[in-house]
What does this fold into?
Amino acid sequence: YAKSKIISEKLLIKNFKKNDLIIFRLPGVYGPNDNYKSTIGKMIKSAKIKKIINVYNTELKRDYVYIDDINIIVQYCIINKIFGIYNLVKGRSENLENIANKIKFFTNSNIDYTSKLYENKPKNLIFNNVKIKQILKKFIFTSTKKGIKKYLNNL
It folds into this structure.
C-alpha cells in the first residue's frame, strides 16, 4: 500500500510542472458518507448497531482528520494557488482506546477490548505537519470528539 503511494507521487511529479501540482498525504480520514469504511466509522457503526465498540489494539496510535477539514484545506489551496507536497495531518496521534471512549460518551455503548497482534504495523504513526501549518497559520483542526459528534449527528 505504502509503495503504491510512493510510486503514484513519483509519477505525478514526473508528469506535471512543479507549479501545477499539489499532493496531500492523508492520514486516517473519517466523517459522514465514508460508508463506515474508516476506522472511526467502523467503530461508530458497531456502537450504533451492536452497542459494542471493538478495540483490537489499544497501543496503535494514528492521526485522524475529519473530512470537513480536508475539504476546507483543499479548497483554500486551490483558490490561493498553493502547490507542493503536504502532510495533511493534525500532527497528533491518538490511540483507539481514547477514540472508543469518545464514541462511548455519545452512544452509551460498551467497549470490547480484543488483543490482536499487529506485528507488521508500527504502533505510533507520527507525521510532520510543519509545512502545512506554515500555510494554514490560523486553521484549527476539528477535535476528534467534535468530529465524532458531527459524524453521529449526520447519520
Notes: Strands lie at 22-25, 28-30, 52-55, 61-62, 64-66, 84-87, 94-95, 110-113.
